[in-house]
């Protein structure tokens, strides 16, 4: 696992964010690192090369055989990818000419830009960039209509927008699904598995998702590894899931995991949201005159990230679970990786933790009972 941290704005100092993106992962990581975060990144999926995608070629041939009555372009990168694949097949000119007579709906400004770059014009685009508004715009009766929908980010067993396609079919349309940028298993499965385990074990503070296939892939892989319950518990509790938009969040909603998304479905907006929102959800504690942040994989004292061992972090998390309350030596001993230890092992571990934090007064000894954080 590659972890990177930089010094910068203090908002995310000490926080660890897991990134599952296959595309623009380095760019996204840099946006978070500039705010002080540590990032851990592993692609959840790999993209099938467009020119090799038999499903995309089959959908293109279907459009070429008979022009659809309606084309719905859902993403800019997806439509551009379709045009690029058609170019590689020597079919771009024929495809664009076929679509000239088609009513075209663009779901937002990015697909609009891609359409116009290809020489096509949309007849309408929703202000909200939502599929719900697209459905509201279309007639309730689509009987006899052939509707092509450019999809983005499908997998062999996952449809990125099943409710949308199902509603078109319910209205009587013959739907041509054009699956652009389909996904398959990651090239480095071990690396992704390691990141999944870190999230399930709550060793990160947040998990960021930029595509619904990445969410679906993580859930399915967790089931295969027997860790799905732990993963869901982590995402419903100590690990905050952030999604770039509502489509990305849908697989989490399906398993009752709430997530946080920016108002604008953009990578920069997601990074800003995490930088502003995560510190509010995990505020620092006032302890013995110091500001202390207890993070998933770090401790921060007065803006300084402390070098705390894994066993020290386990003790600190127990003390911070209910700040100011006493935690018994017996309970703390159970967290240490020493078989058959005694109370002296706890004293040694607490001493090392105090030294690592750089301020011994942060942890108070309660005679004959245990230890507590000396909260103000």
Question: Can you tell me about this structure?
Answer:
The protein contains 15 helices and 18 strands. It has 376 residues and is of the alpha/beta class. It folds into 3 domains: 3-45 and 186-281, Rossmann fold (3-Layer(aba) Sandwich), CATH 3.40.50.10090; 50-162, 3-Layer(aba) Sandwich (Rossmann fold), CATH 3.40.50; 285-373, Winged helix-like DNA-binding domain superfamily/Winged helix DNA-binding domain (Arc Repressor Mutant, subunit A), CATH 1.10.10. The strands form 5 sheets. The chain has a 5-stranded mixed beta sheet, sandwiched between helices. Strand 14 and strand 15 form a beta hairpin. It starts with a strand and ends with a strand. Residues 1-9 have low confidence and may be disordered.
Quote the beta fraction. Answer: 15-25%
Strand tally is: 18
Please compute the radius of gyration using only Cα atoms: 25 Å
CATH architecture of the largest domain: 3-Layer(aba) Sandwich
Q: Helicity level, as a percent range?
A: 40-55%
State the helix count: 15
């Amino acid at each position: 696992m590659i972890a990177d941290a930089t010094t910068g704005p203090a908002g995310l100092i000490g926080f660890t964010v897991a990134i599952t993106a296959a595309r623009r992962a380095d760019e996204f990581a840099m946006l978070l690192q500039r705010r002080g975060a540590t990032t851990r990144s592993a692609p959840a999926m790999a993209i099938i090369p467009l020119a090799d995608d038999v499903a995309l070629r089959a959908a293109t041939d279907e459009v070429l055989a008979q022009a659809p009555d309606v084309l719905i372009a859902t993403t800019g990168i997806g439509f551009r990818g379709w045009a690029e694949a058609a170019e590689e097949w020597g079919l771009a000119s024929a495809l664009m000419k076929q679509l000239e007579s088609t009513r075209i709906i663009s779901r937002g400004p990015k697909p609009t830009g891609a359409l116009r770059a290809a020489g096509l014009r949309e007849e309408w685009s929703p202000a909200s960039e939502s599929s719900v508004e697209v459905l509201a715009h279309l007639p309730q009766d689509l009987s006899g209509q052939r509707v092509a929908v450019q999809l983005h980010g499908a997998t062999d067993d996952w449809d990125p927008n099943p409710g949308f396609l199902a509603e078109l079919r319910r209205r009587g349309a013959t739907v041509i699904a054009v699956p652009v940028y389909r996904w398959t298993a990651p090239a480095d499965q071990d690396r992704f598995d390691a990141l999944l385990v870190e999230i399930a074990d709550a060793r990160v503070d947040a998990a960021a998702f930029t595509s619904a296939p990445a969410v679906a892939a993580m859930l399915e892989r967790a089931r295969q590894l027997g860790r799905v319950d732990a993963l869901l518990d982590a995402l419903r509790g100590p690990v905050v899931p952030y999604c770039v938009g509502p489509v990305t969040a849908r697989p989490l909603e399906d398993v009752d995991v709430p997530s946080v998304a920016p108002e604008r479905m953009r990578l920069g907006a997601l990074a800003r949201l995490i930088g502003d929102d995560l510190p509010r959800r995990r505020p620092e504690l006032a302890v013995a005159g110091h500001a202390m942040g207890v993070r998933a994989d770090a401790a921060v004292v007065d803006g300084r990230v402390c070098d705390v061992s894994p066993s020290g972090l386990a003790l600190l998390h127990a003390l911070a679970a209910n700040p100011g309350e006493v935690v018994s030596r017996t309970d703390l001993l159970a967290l240490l990786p020493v078989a058959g230890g005694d109370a002296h092992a706890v004293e040694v571990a607490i001493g090392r933790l105090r030294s690592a934090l750089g301020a011994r007064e942060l942890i108070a000894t309660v005679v004959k009972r245990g230890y507590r954080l000396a909260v103000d």
